[in-house]
Amino acid sequence: MRESIPIASDHAGYELKEKLKAALERRGYAVDDLGPASDASTDYADFAHPLADRVSSGEAARGILMCGTGLGMSYAANRHPHVRAAVAWAPEIAELSRRHNDANVLVLPARFVSEADAEAILDAWLATPFDGGRHERRIEKIETTAGARAEEAGRHHPDHHAGKDDAGPGGHAREELE
Predict the structure, then answer these.
(1) Which strand (E) or helix (H) includes residue 106?
(2) How many Cβ atoms are within 10 Å of 92's Cβ, its own excluded?
């Protein structure tokens, strides 16, 4: 059975997404297009989150996203556990994202790469294995630290309702918000 790779974009990446779908199929991959179905204005998070959910859960081993700069898609995708979404604008960046960071989501800045460059980036990313070794330790630190930091940030978020004994900014006690 051939590998199925989910792919998604926003309106700015729609045209490139359509071209990369064909490129993936020519390379023997099955493509799971998560949208959008046109270049009408969309919000990148509406397409990044479903793809990242599939990678995070293990339903898909890897995925491909694109938007104008690649940044919005990467921000949304990287909020999911076990997702390492890397914005790549050159084949060398894509290769290093795999070798050193085990990137499992490729994010392309559609407004800043040509179709030929995007295919070269895609090929480098698809063909490059993770080096492991010292890089494995670094990946583990991302995963283990992310949960602890998210929990800590939740305690200090403005929407968190602190008890009477909870310390606020500067170590001063905060009163219950009502």
Answers:
(1) strand 105-109
(2) 11
Helix-helix angle 115-127:14-26, to 10 degrees: 50
> Which of 100, 135, 156, 160 is flagged as catalytic?
100
Annotated active-site residue 11? The verdict is no
CATH 3.30.230.10 fits 4-127, yes or no: no
pTM across the whole model: 0.82
Element (H or E) spanning 57, and its range?
helix 45-57
CATH code 3.40.1400.10 region(s) in the chain? 4-127
Secondary structure element (H or E) that encloses residue 6, with its range: strand 4-9
Digit-coded pLDDT (tens) for 137-146: 888 988 876 6
In angstroms, the CA 29 to CA 146 distance is 32
Q: What is the C-alpha separation between 109 and 9, in angstroms, rounded?
A: 10
The single residue of 49, 67, 80, 160 carrying the catalytic annotation is: 67
Mean pLDDT of 87-96: 98
